[in-house]
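Continued from yesterday's entry.
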Amino acid sequence: MSLAVVLVEPAGPLNVGSVARLCANFAIEQLRLVAPRCDHLGAEARQMAVHGEALLEQARLYPDLATAIADCRRVVATSGRIETESLPLSEPDEALRWLCQTDSRKVDEGPERSNPVAALVFGREDRGLSNAELLQAGRVVRLATSEAYASLNLSHAVAICLHELQTCRTQPQPMAGSPTLCSRGALEATLADAEALLLEVGFLYPHTAAARMAKLRALLQRAQVQEPEVALLRGMVRQLRWAARQGTP
C-alpha cells in the first residue's frame, strides 16, 4: 500500500521543507498539501528539504482534506487536543501498525486504483485539525508529551510518527484476515447521500445535521466499513429515497 503524508494548511515553509526531507528519509512516496499558506517551492522550503527537494516539486495540492484523502482506504490523523468523546484515541504504535496493514484480498477497481493509498495526516501549526477533519480518519493519535508544554513543532511530530511507522514496516506482525476497507471518497459520498435523504424526510434538521452526521461518521469509522458494505448502504439510501418520493402527493 502506497503511503502519503498529508499536511493541512501548513504555514511555515521551513516546516514543509523539513517534512519533505523526512519523507525522503523514511521512503514515503507522496507528500500532499491541503491549501498551503506558504510557498512550498520557495527558497526556505528548498533549503530545508535537502535531498527531499524532488518530493516538494512533486507535492500534490488539494483544496480540502476530504479531497486529499478521497482515494485512501486507511487514514490516521494526529491531534494535540480532543474536544469530543466521539473521537477515541489510539496508541501511536497500534494506529500506525493498522495503517500499514494490507487488504486481505484485491479489489478490481481499474488501473487507477490498483495501488491503494494510506494517509498520515497532520494539522495546522497553530490549531491542528478540526473535529470535523479528525472524524475523517479511521484512527486518531496523540503523541505523549509533557502536560506542562504539550505542543510539538509540526516537523518534529512528523519525525516521531514516521520513525514509529518505519518500525512497523520493518518489523511486520502477521495480520490474518485484514479487511478490505472502502475508500474515503466512497464513504463520504454515501454519507452525503444519507444526509440529503434524512434532511428530505425530516429526520435531520439543518441546524443539527452536522452534529448528528458526525456521530454517524464516527460509528462507521469504528466499524471499518468495507467496499461491499458501503455499496449496500448507498443502495439502501437510494431505494428509500425512491420510496419516499413515490409516497409524496
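--- second protein ---
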Amino acid sequence: MSIAENITKFKDEIPEEVTLVAISKTKPVDDILEAYNAGQRIFGENKIQEMTEKWEKLPKDIKWHMVGHVQRNKVKYMAEYVDLIHAVDSLKLLREIEKQAKKYDRTISCLLQIKIAEEDTKYGIDVDEAKSILQSNAYRKMTHVKVVGLMGMATFTEKEEKVRKEFSFLKTTFEDLKSEYNSFSILSMGMSGDYKIAIDCGSTMVRIGSSIFGERNYN
C-alpha cells in the first residue's frame, strides 16, 4: 500500500476522538508531502535539526510534534514553530522551553513523559516527579508553557497483558491529574505495534510511523 492509502486506512480505523501523529523521522520531504496530500496535517520528529529543515521546506499549516528526547540547548531551534513537545522529563527543560517560547511570544504545549516501561532505554519520570513539577512555583509562574497531558511508551514485548497493564496505569494517572489540572486533555500513547491496545486503554493520541511510511532507513 502507498503512504496515501495507509493514511486513509488509519483515518478510517482510528476513532474520531483520537489524534493521529504521523511519525516522519528519517523520511524525505516527498514522503511527508504524499501524506499531507492525503489529508494528514500532524507530523512527529525525534531530532530538532531534522524537523526544522523539514518545517522550512513544507507547507506552514503542518503541525510539528517533537516526540524524541529533547536536549535543552536545542530548544531554541524549534521554539518558533513547534506545536507540541511530547517528551518533557524535567523542570529544567520546561524552564528552557518557557524562555525560548517567550522570545516568539508563543505558548508551547507540552506533555510530561511518564516512564511506564521496564526497559532502561526508555526515558521518563515517575508520577511523583510529575506531580512535583506541576505543583512547583516555577511552573505555576510560567506563561509561555502549558502542560496539556501525558505521554508514555510501553515495554517492547509480545505480552499483550503487560502492555495493557502499563497503558492502563498511565490512563489512571492521567485521569487523576486531569481532575486537578483543567489544562489536561492529551494522553499520547500507542505506536505502530501497540496502538490498538493503547486506544482500548483510553489513548487520545497515537504516534504511527513505520505502518504509514514503511521501515526506516537509519543509514
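The mean pLDDT is 95. Residues 3-209 form a domain with the TIM Barrel fold (CATH 3.20.20.10). Will compare against the first tomorrow.
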